[in-house]
Write a structure and sequence with these properties.
599 residues, alpha+beta, 21 strands, 50% helix, disordered C terminus
Length: 599
């Protein structure tokens, strides 16, 4: 459920959907559990009931078969039957014996209603049968298994799925029959055969269930054919499912679920010994679940009521729970927009209330930090400006004034005018009308004014200023190069016989795909050792006079532009000093008058 945790969905809707999903999941689990419990209980009860019913059918059929066998014994020992079959030569039968045997056969039908008809066959081929039969011939008796009957030597042999050619009650019927050999009571020799027929429909009445017409009861022989069934169309047909046939042949009794002709059935089975038959009852699973619709409707109604209740309660709870969070969110948005005077409601003791109180404390601390940062920024600006002004050395001013005074005595007013102009230009650019950034062209003019004055003091001083074309309009902080040139003159080349040489260049370079401005100030003075260079950056007192200007410039650059920019110094004794000053390449814009620059 990733959509529940997406950032675009409101919290109130997330809570509502979460509650609905929880209720729905609980209802589904509850309904499925109840359904499975009810189904399993019903299946267990139906299985036990089906087994009991099959067992009763089995016992009823065994009782019927045993009763029919007993009646066959009665015929076997009947004196009239013995006498008639013993003297049967095909002609001249005893009329009294004939009448007696027919009376006996009729009595069997009256006494045992499960018997449909009886046939007695003498060895000579004479036939004696009950009056309800017609069309009985010796050929029609070929359906009876005489070989098995002879092999039984007087024992009962049951034959199933018989469809005789003769009629019973003027109808063709499916018969289940028992046959015996009739033996002489005196000699023990065979006298003939007796066949007792049972109408298959008579057996079907034993297990026909009008209250459950969907269930099927089958009597299956050892060959997998249906001997009897509550549906007459199934008789003499094979079992419709091979797997069911295999199961019926492999076990003596049991219960299982089985798919037959596309429907699912609960199958119960009992063996019908000693006839090698099986009594099978099939109950459709759909019949077992017929009552589930009521349960399902009841559960659906319960679920619908629960869902509606959950929706209403979720809306109320979600609104009540998320209102403080919504208010806090509005406050956070306003504070983020710059309104630091806004405060969140923190009148509760729960997590939301504590969060609001903590947020208010955070906003107050932010306000305090902003005031502190603003104050520190003003202080830094003031210190920076003071440091800038401190670069105007008093001794330089005094020496310049002494030089002007000497020139006033020694020469004409033209040189004095030039020097005063250079001095005025120097101070004008140094102060820069309070601006922090000036163009490279202005910085160049500032250096030229400074070097002109220094060249008057030191006539042998030589210098060169070169600016890469196109960089004149770039912006740099004021008073960056003059201290470097001053260090080069006073600590490097002052006192040299030829006056020394100082070169100032400006060019653009590219590092890591970013363009930078690089100033180089080099001289051919006495240079510095490695130890002296380390002392400059360590702030040692012995190097304070030389290092103060360098460290001041380094601090100003890194304060404004970061640690990626600043001064790098290389020097060897007697080889002069080379100082590289790297700055971001800032281009002047049309809004320069308003102090706006762009990278």
């Amino acid at each position: 459920m990733p959509f529940l945790f997406s950032g675009s969905m409101p919290l109130r809707r997330k809570i509502l959907l979460s509650n609905l999903l929880i209720v729905l999941l609980a209802l589904v689990i509850f309904m499925v559990s109840i359904q499975r419990i009810v189904f399993n209980q019903t299946l267990e009860r139906t299985t036990a009931s089906s087994q009991q019913e099959v067992k009763l059918v089995k016992q009823s059929m065994e009782t019927v078969f045993q009763s029919v066998q007993n009646f066959t014994k009665f015929v076997l020992i009947n004196q009239d039957t013995q006498k008639l079959l013993s003297s049967d030569t095909g002609t001249g039968n005893d009329v009294a014996a004939l009448k007696s045997i027919y009376n006996t056969l009729a009595a069997m039908l009256v006494t045992e209603p499960n018997i449909d008809s009886v046939i007695i066959e003498s060895l000579s081929g004479n036939l004696y049968y009950t009056s309800n039969l017609t069309g009985v011939t010796r050929e029609s008796l070929g359906i009876y298994p005489k070989a098995e009957i002879d092999a039984a030597r007087g024992g009962a042999v049951w034959a199933d799925s018989l469809t005789p050619a003769f009629l019973s009650g003027m109808k063709h019927k499916n018969m289940i029959s028992v046959g015996r050999v009739i033996k002489s009571m005196e000699k023990g020799t065979p006298l003939g055969y007796i066949y007792v027929n049972i109408d298959e429909r008579t057996l079907a009445r034993l297990y026909h269930n009008e209250q459950n017409p969907e269930s099927a009861t089958l009597v299956i022989n050892r060959y997998g054919r249906i001997v009897s069934a509550n549906e007459a169309t199934r008789v003499n047909q094979p079992v419709p499912e091979e797997s069911l046939t295999n199961w019926v042949k492999s076990v003596s009794q049991g219960t299982r679920t089985q798919e037959v002709d596309g429907d699912r059935y609960l199958v119960s089975m009992q063996s019908l010994a000693p006839y090698d038959w099986k009594v099978v009852q099939l109950v459709t699973i759909s019949e077992l679940t017929y009552g589930y619709w009521k349960i399902a409707l009841l559960l659906a109604g319960f679920g619908l009521i629960s869902i509606l209740s959950a929706v209403l309660l979720s809306i109320l709870f979600a609104r009540r729970l998320t209102r403080p969070l919504s208010q806090l969110s509005e406050v956070i948005v306003e504070v983020g927009s710059g309104n630091l005077e806004r405060r969140a409601a923190a009148d509760s003791e729960d997590e939301v209330g504590r969060l609001g109180a903590t947020f208010n404390e955070m906003v107050e601390r932010i306000q305090g930090l902003m005031v502190q940062v603003e104050t520190e920024e003003r202080t830094k600006r003031m210190l920076e400006l003071r440091l800038l002004y401190s670069q105007i050395k008093p001794h330089f001013l005094y020496n310049t004034l002494d030089t002007i005074r000497a020139m006033a005595v020694m020469s004409g007013a033209k040189d004095i005018s030039k020097m005063l102009k250079a001095l005025g230009e120097f101070y004008r650019i140094s102060l820069s009308n309070g601006q922090e950034l000036i163009t490279v062209a202005q910085e160049q003019k500032h250096l030229e004014s400074y070097l002109y004055i220094q060249q008057i003091r030191f006539p042998k001083l030589n210098y060169r200023i070169w600016i890469e074309p196109g960089l004149e309009s770039c912006l740099v902080p004021t008073m960056l190069l003059q201290p470097l040139v001053e260090n080069a003159i006073h600590h490097g080349i002052r006192g040299m016989a030829d006056g020394g040489w100082c070169e100032i260049t400006c060019e653009a370079e590219t590092t890591n795909g970013q363009r930078r401005l690089c100033f180089t100030v080099c001289d051919n003075g006495k240079g510095m050792s490695e130890e002296q260079q380390q002392m400059i950056w360590s702030g040692h007192d012995s190097a304070e006079r030389y290092s103060f200007g360098l460290r001041n410039i380094q601090d100003r650059i890194r304060l404004r532009f970061g640690g990626a920019y600043g001064i790098s110094l290389t020097s060897e004794p007697g080889q002069g000093v080379e100082v590289k000053l790297r700055l971001p390449l800032l281009l002047q814009t049309n809004e320069q008058e308003e102090g706006t620059v762009r990278l």
